[in-house]
Each structure stands twice: as C-alpha cells, then as structure tokens.
Amino acid sequence: MAFQRPPQTEQSGTGTAPRRGRLRLLWPVAAVGFGLVLIHQSLGTAPVTSARQPDRPTTVATRAAGTPQATPSTGSDDGALPRSAPTRISIPAISVDAPFTKLSLDSTGHLTPPPADDTNLVGWFQGGASPGERGTSVVVGHVDTTTGPAVFVGLDALKAGEHVEITREDGIVARFQIDAVDTFSKADFPDDEVYADTPTPELRLITCGGTFNRTSKDYESNVVVFAHLESSSRS
C-alpha cells in the first residue's frame, strides 16, 4: 500500500469545514520537491521519483494576538514549542494509539516509508518541523498492508474540531485541533498547500485513500488531515 498515483487529474476535496486561510508560502520550491517524493512513492515499494531534501523551516512569524494557548512557558507568543521528536500519537475519535518512527530521505532523495511489517506505527519526517514547533510537521502512516488494515485506516473519518495528541521526547503533549480532512487525487496533488512552511505550528497527517487500482497496485488518492496547535501540557 502506498501514496499512490491515480489516473484522474481533478482533485476531490472532502473537507468537513472551511479550511483555515492558507498562510504565506515561505519555502515553495522545497515544499513542492518534498511533496513529489512523498506523494508519488509507494510505502513499502520502490520509489518512482526524486527530489532534493527540503531545508527545515526558519519562519518566525506568530499567531494573531488573543488566541488562547494553554501551554508551558516557552518564550513564544503563539504557543510554539521548542524542537523535540515525537514519541506517540493518540487520535481518540478513531482509536489510534501508536508509537513513532523517524523518517528521512535516502541517498536518492526519496522518503523512507514506515516499515510495512508493523501495522501500528506512524512516521515523522524529521527533516521538517517537530509537532508543536513552528512550521508544518508531517506525519504519515499506512492505511493497510498485505496483512490487513493499518494505523491510519480510519483517517478519512475524522472531522473538523476533533483532536490529535502527540507526546514528545521532552514530556510535552501537543494537542492539535483538526481544521479539515481532504482527499486529493495524486495526479493533481496541491504540494504547496500541504507541505509549505507555516509561521505557526501546524500538523499534516497523510495516508492513502480513494480507489485502489488493482493494475498498478496503488491507491489513486491521498487523505490529508490539516490541523493546528491548540494547546500543550506536561504529560
């Protein structure tokens, strides 16, 4: 199973609520490159495209004043957290409780997917922002494997307003509120919208979706969850 490429060219949005305004694109070239790697590579199969590794975001813009943030004192006005790797993800609405593995790009510039032999494991792209850090944090997981359903099989059932909690190595739990859930054709995937850097802490959860093409043995779309940091606390 994987982030597969469909024959269609029109993206299909299935957002459950108006998405938050897209923030200024601060690294569009790198974002597009990473998007091509992530979306057109099969999880558990050989990669089919290449791109250079994106630089880590360096944005310092802040969230608008007045937005409530129940966060530990971090010296930031928008609730952004210092960098720390994630260790566990919890999504109560779809009964997800899974550990993380760190994902990197290989020597050819392709994202290494989470191991397909562990159905309850998610991957964090460690070349991007960590969950709760300013920027776009990217978390991916299998929808299924050859042995059956996997960790993100219910991702497309999530709704705006529901929550994702990510525990980090520093003992902080970052709580994200979901803004929208969309399904995009891989033939017309909005790389900038999904991967571009943001000046406040955001999260993207990504898995396969849409029709399974039995000829190519690929799904034709990707499910993407858009979320923003709502609060954080000590575990």
Give a structural overview.
The protein is mainly beta. It has helices at residues 28-39, 191-195; strands at residues 86-91, 96-103, 122-125, 135-141, 144-145, 148-149, 163-168, 172-185, 201-213, 218-234. It has one domain (28-54, 85-234): Sortase (Sortase, Chain: A, Beta Barrel). The protein has an 8-stranded mixed beta barrel. It has a two-stranded antiparallel ribbon with strand order 5-6. A hairpin with a 4-residue loop joins strand 9 (201-213) and strand 10.
Query: What does the main sheet amount to?
Result: 8 strands, mixed, barrel
Look up the CATH topology. Sortase, Chain: A
Supply Rg. 16 Å
**For the terminal residues, how far apart are their CA atoms?**
34 Å
Q: Classify the helix fraction into a percent range.
A: under 10%
In CATH, the homologous superfamily goes by the name Sortase
Which stretches are poorly predicted, pLDDT < 50 over at least 5 residues? 1-75
Major sheet strand order: 1-2-3-4-9-10-8-7
Strand content: 25-35%
Please identify the structural class as seen in this structure: mainly beta
CATH class descriptor: Mainly Beta
Mean pLDDT: 75
Tell me the series of helices and strands, N- to C-terminal: HEEEEEEEEHEE
- Number of domain modules: 1
What is the topological layout?
Blueprint: H1 28-39, E1 86-91, E2 96-103, E3 122-125, E4 135-141, E5 144-145, E6 148-149, E7 163-168, E8 172-185, H2 191-195, E9 201-213, E10 218-234
Which key terms come to mind for this protein?
Sortase, Chain: A, 2 helices, disordered N terminus
